[in-house]
Amino acid sequence: MTAALDRRTDYRVTFLVLCVGVASFSLLQSMVNPVLPTIEAALHTDQSTVTWVLTAYLVSASVFTPIIGRVGDKVGKERMLVVALGALAVGSLLAAVAGTIGVLIAARVIQGIGGGVLPLTFGIIRDEFPREKVASAIGTAAALLAVGGGVGLVIAGPLVDALSYHWLFWIPMIMTIVATVAAAVWVPESPERTPGRINVGTALLMSAWLVALLIGVSQGHHWGWGSTKVVALFVVAAVLLPTWVWAESRSDQPLVDMQMMRIPTVWTVNLVALLFGFAMYSTFAFLPQFLQTPESAGYGFGVSVTESGLLLLPQTIASFLGGVFAGRLAARYGSKALLVVGAALMALGTFGLTFLHGAAWLIVVESVVFGLAFGLAFAAMSNLVVDAVPQSQTGVASGMNTNIRTVGGAIGSAVLATVITSSVEPSGLPVESGYTHGFLLLALMATAAAVVALFIPVVRASTHVVPGPQAESEAELEPQPSRT
Could you list the residue ranges forming a coiled coil in this record (predicted)? Predict the structure, then answer.
């Protein structure tokens, strides 16, 4: 017992390891986006095929994030953290040496398994850190996800110019190998375990509807929203989603406990995550594209990939600062207040982008507002969900929240692509009104997220565990008042 306690004394070492893992995953989310044309040319493929480099990663991460989180709840978060980081390292190595587009897509699927790093990180922080340090640590870790996305956009261009696109994978691979070894050596075993087996049937059902939905959404713009393939995928998702919910509700050992998902705090935060993800990830995808549009189109600034990344660097810094200070602000004002403010800032920034985008400095100011919104909202969502569920369900609850935010981002990016390209100039570039309407849509979604956030009931799950198979679904879900 003494040895176990001694091993857990310095939580700061654990936190450093977790941050390296989260940073590696977040870099892989964004660094590839700006250089897809480079990859397309290097691997002698076409535009429709190269988009699967993004789609494969998105689908894989969405499927594995909640599954790895739930497995970690059951068999140990430290053990599964090593698995998730190991998958990131293997996938990055395969991507770095890939000589064909098929191998690269397969590598991205393997990398997606690393999505489990996020819920496992939040669970380990809750297990290992002093109570007063949890909110701040989760805020910083959550902010790293947004920061990594911004850093990826900044360094992708210079890295490819100086070396090659292969280094977009070599660098995360090196970081991940270091994190994997460090996790195996220094991150302690989980003190909290959920008894029972993994429900393979419901895991397959969840995977099936997610794959159908996300492929349909991500490819709808290319295949046509009314095409047979896209409609069929949406029908499959519409049938399998309620089937999955029904199966989970009737299962003695659910993968995702539907009682947990019905906790008012959990489902309202998840709804905010969907709406916020819609707005946030779309700005990552289309703001650099707007900046790079030639001035001859009547808008845009004609900057390079590298220059657009540098213009958005202040956004990344603001995201990090927002996440770092979120813990202190939450202790004083509550995580709900931070989420409302974060969503409101997102709405303010996107409304500004809609009507004031004629000068580069305006874009920089608005992107700083986005950055603060990302940092505050990511931290607040994670803290609210973690604090509302039993400790034994932290991994799966965090995984589903992350997943829902990702689904929102996929839907938002697809819808925005359709809106922006609905009318094009003779040169093939979108007309300015396409961007204006698209940014306005993002502002409305962010506003909706802020409104929903106002109605989040804030509770804290009891840590009391009642013996028996119903412990999770009964005693552990009893809410208690909380200021978080």
Answer: none
